[in-house]
Amino acid sequence: MKLAYLDCFSGVSGDMLVGALLDAGLPLAELRAGLAALPLTGFELAAEPVTDHGIHGMRAVVRLDDAAPHEHRGIADIETLLASSALPPRVRARALAIFRRLAAAEARIHGTTPDEVIFHEVGAVDAIVDITGAALGLELLGVEELYCSELPLTSGRVRSAHGPLPVPAPATLELLRETGARWRSVPAEGELVTPTGAAIIATLARFERPSVAVRAIGYGFGQRTTLPWANCLRLLLGEVPSAADEAAGFERDEVIVLESNIDNMSGEALGWLMERLLAATNEEEPPRRAADGAGAAGRCASARGTHPHGQRNARRAHACGRAAEGGAARRRNRDATRQRARQAQAHRWPRRLGHTRI
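and the corresponding C-alpha cells:
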C-alpha cells in the first residue's frame, strides 16, 4: 500500500503540495489532462524548477487568463462544478469533502451556515485548481494514506477580503482545531499554513509519523522567497515496509514477563512453588533469582536495610534467594529432615501414653 508523508517544516499550501507531487514523479501532462475534466476555462497549470538554499524542487503555478471572469463561489457552486466534471469518483469525493470542510469552518467563524458561505480567495480558479489538483495527484500516484508532521506556528497579519487577519488565519485554526495537528513556534512572521493547505490536510491526512519505506522524495516550493530557509514542503512517497524491509533495518524481538508479588511465604514453600512452575514451563534450571517475585532482594531498598522493616524483609528476601538457588541436593536434605521429624514424632507418642494417669 502506497502512502505519503508531508514534512511541513515551512508550512503547507495547495500549490506547495501540487509542486511536491510533481517533483516526486507525478507527470505534469497527466495532471493537466485530468484537470481538463473540470468545467473551468481561462487557466493553465505550469511547473517551474526552483533551487533555494541548496534544495531543488518544483513550484506549481496556475496562470490565469486576464480576460477570464473572476467569480466568488459558494459551496453549492463548487458542488455543481465537481459533479459536472469527468474526474474519477474518488477525486471528486475527496475534493468535495475538502470544500465542505472549509465551508463548515468558515460558517463557524462568521456565525452563519455552510450554504451561506461565499468563498473569496478559495473560490477563485487557482484555489479550485490547487485543491482538485492535489486530490487528483494523490490518486494518480496511487496514494492510499496521507500523513502530516507538526506545523509551524508564526505571527503577523495576512490580507484577506475581510481586511487584515491574524496569522494563522481564523479559518486555518478552525480547520485544524479538532484534527490532532500540533503546532511548533518558529521565528518568522507571515502566513506559512494557508486555509487551502489546512483544508487539504485536515480532510485527508493523519497527524502522526508512519513507518514507511521511502521510494521517492519531492519538494514543492511556495511563492514566498524572504524566509531564512527554503520555503518548501517536503513529501516522502513510499510504501508500508515489508517484513524483509524491517528485518534489514533493525531487529525485533518479543519478551513476555509474568510477575507476582509474594509476601509471608517461607523459603521451603517458595521452593516447592518454583519446582511446580519450572515443571509447567519445561525448564531444567531454576531462574537466576526469585527475588523479583518475592521482594526483589537484589534491588529493593528494604532488603538492603534502608527501609524501617529492612531486617525483616532482608531475611525474607534471603530465604527466597536460597530457595531459588536450590537444586536436587537441597530437596533431598529437605525430605530427609521431614522424614526424621516424622519418625521422632512417632517415637514420642508411646512414651506419652505410658505415663498417662487415669
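(Above: one complete record from the training split.) The radius of gyration is 36 Å.
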